Amino acid sequence: MSEQRGAAPTPGTTTNLGTSTTSFGVGRRESHDASAFYDRFPAPTLSDDDVVVRAPDLGDGCLNGDSRDMHQLPDSSVALVVTSPPYFVGKDYEVEIERDGVPTSYLEYLGMLRDVFAECVRVLEPGGRIAVNVANLGRKPYRSLSSDVIRILQDELGLLLRGEVVWQKAEGATGSVAWGSFRRAANPVLRDMTERVVIASKGRFDRAVPTARRSHDGLPSESTITTDEFMEATLDVWRIDAEQANRVGHPAPFPVELPRRLIDLYTYRDDLVLDPFLGSGSTLVAAARAGRRGVGFDLDPEYVTLAKQRLADERRRLDEQPVAAWRRSDLAGTSVSQEGLFGEEITGSLGPDQALDRA
User: Fold this and answer.
1) Which InterPro entries does this entry report, sorted A to Z (predicted)?
2) Where are the domains of the chain?
3) Beta-carbon neighbour count of residue 16 at 10 Å?
């Protein structure tokens, strides 16, 4: 891959980074200078800030509170935000906690998201990432919530957009038969089989503080992702079965595997992972499985209690079965098989203690 062109940016200034591709339409794109393309857009603001702060002990990390004010967390203390905001679709739990500040109009909802994400930006480390899982809304007309989230993160908060993952649920998982006019052109409707995960980073593309210096300074520095997991996680389509609401006890849970992939890909062991919309605690369960610290906020004390119980159950299970025994089973039969791609033989159970550090 060719190197980026141009001098390193001065702190606090903007710059467009050149890239190289071949002629458009060709599968491999390494030699064509695309600088003129990027010059058409406002240059992002890049930072060389490398201050990283370790957050204080927050117990089990399940906190009852408003994530628009996460005063328990210091600036630059969170490595990754993974969240799935409450969908603005009139679910019972939104009605129940409306008195606690859940907005009653879509524009108010977007304003609430903006305030929460702004607080997330404050607590993120330089180079820390935020991953927001959203479902697009409605059919009369369709509303692209993912586009609104991108606008907030990129245009209003100045984050660097890193990409979008399409989460493909198992076919028929939603139970939707809302196909409109069946076998007639009058008004056929696309059925929802996917959601989006919007990913952005704060101020820089890489994590602040090089790995060697992290280790010297006592900061998290150990990557735990295996080759197969890395190759699967860096695709922009993930096939993961949806979670059942009646099994978890929350009307809109997301599967633990979704935050787990993001945590494995973007964090080091013992990094701090934040979910500002804690819900049933799936993100914190995933963080525990991956050997990371987790913290989450929710306005509803019942969901905080549910998250605490799920996390306690998970930690008991991990005490009985060490983290090294965990092996991700979701890779079998998914969209790509990477076994042997790098001449590595992968056998048996392979957990974080045996994984290669590919930072």
Assistant:
1) DNA_methylase_N4/N6, MeTrfase_CN4_CS, RM_Methyltransferase, SAM-dependent_MTases_sf
2) 1-46, 47-325
3) 18
